[in-house]
Structure formats: C-alpha cells, structure tokens
Amino acid sequence: MQPPSPTIQARMDVGHRFGEEARKLFPEGIMVEAEFWDRDGALAETAQCFDDSAGSVLFEAAFLHRDTFLRCDVLRKVSAADWELWEVKSVKSPSALHILDLAIQTYVVAICLNELPRQQSIVKAGIIHFGVSDSTFAWTDLTKQVNDLRSEVEQLITNGITIRELEAAPQISIGKHCFRPYRCPFLGSACR
Q: How do 30-31 and 57-65 pair as beta strands?
C-alpha cells in the first residue's frame, strides 16, 4: 500500500491531535498501549484491564468477534455493569459513515462485554467532535441510530467473512464504489 498523500496525512495528524485533546476529558483514563499492529497484545492488555478492574475509562481498548477486530477511542464505565462507547472524530458533525463505524464497534463490544464473567453491556454510544468552535468539544448521543443498524452490521460482518473465504478475489469492475467513502488502496494492483 502507498503512504498517504500529504493532504491525507495532514488530516490524520489533525485527528490524532484532536484525539489527544479529547482524552484529557477523562484524566482517569487508562491507555491500552499495544501498537496498532499488535492485535494479540492489545486484546491481552484489554482483558487484563477487565480482570484487574483497572479503571472506569479505557482508551484504545481492543475487542474481537467473528474476525472483526477493533479498538475503541473511549470506553467509559457508568455503573457496575454498564458502559458508554465514544468515538472521537475531528469533524463538526458525525456523518453516516461515522455512525456505521460506531454501530460496528458497539455491536462487537456489546457481544464481548456480554461474554465476561459478570455480564456487562453498552448503554450509550456516541461521538465526541468539534463544538461551536474548533477548541470546544460536542458530544452527540447516537445510541438509537446505532441500535437501528444492528441487523445491517450483522450482515456486513457475515459478508466480510464470506468474501475472505473465497478461493479467488471477487471480479468487480472499477466504479464509484472504489472511491467512496475512500479511495481503495488496491486500485491499480488488484483491480481490472
């Protein structure tokens, strides 16, 4: 895969800085330190946080269900068995893609939390984003929208597993879907 363009890299840098600032909203938070590529390390570190009852806020907690691996920006405990999941986005308002991303995360995390010895659940899901000015934060509760996407998320995960298990790559012509919501990194190498 090619490195990101300077424009994309600048956007990613803004997002990382925004995430760092958003974490300051939760000074008690514990960071899962495993590198982004260290799936097993991140899962083990997250499991240890739950085993130790390490904290009421976890940053970059890792979860895996049906080959869907993810890291949560903010997972916040609000009661003995209830958690909130917050994604941090450096945008003025959440898009449909952000809501779908949050729905996938909520689905996977809820299943994983339910499998803990003392069942736990997600009671709220939302996005922390730019507020009125770029120096303030807004919190948008998207729990209803996320819950409404549950069956779509289940189907997306099933479709992804089905595609992964194919003997050969699917033969799909290049089209608008190759550029939205993002430009496909395989254009030119695996496409016809």
A: parallel
Residue closest to 42 by CA, chosen among 53, 57, 32, 51: 32
Q: Which residue has the higher pLDDT, 144 or 51?
A: 144
Mean pLDDT for the chain overall = 87
Torsion of CA 93, 96, 102, 105, to 10 degrees: -160
Q: What is the C-alpha to C-alpha distance for residues 26 and 10, in angstroms, rounded to an integer?
A: 26
- Is the pTM of the predicted complex or chain greater than 0.85? yes
Q: How far apart, in whole angstroms, are the C-alpha atoms of residue 111 and residue 104?
A: 11
CA distance 100 to 125: 12
Domain boundary assignment for the chain:
6-167
Distance CA 192, CA 179 (A): 15
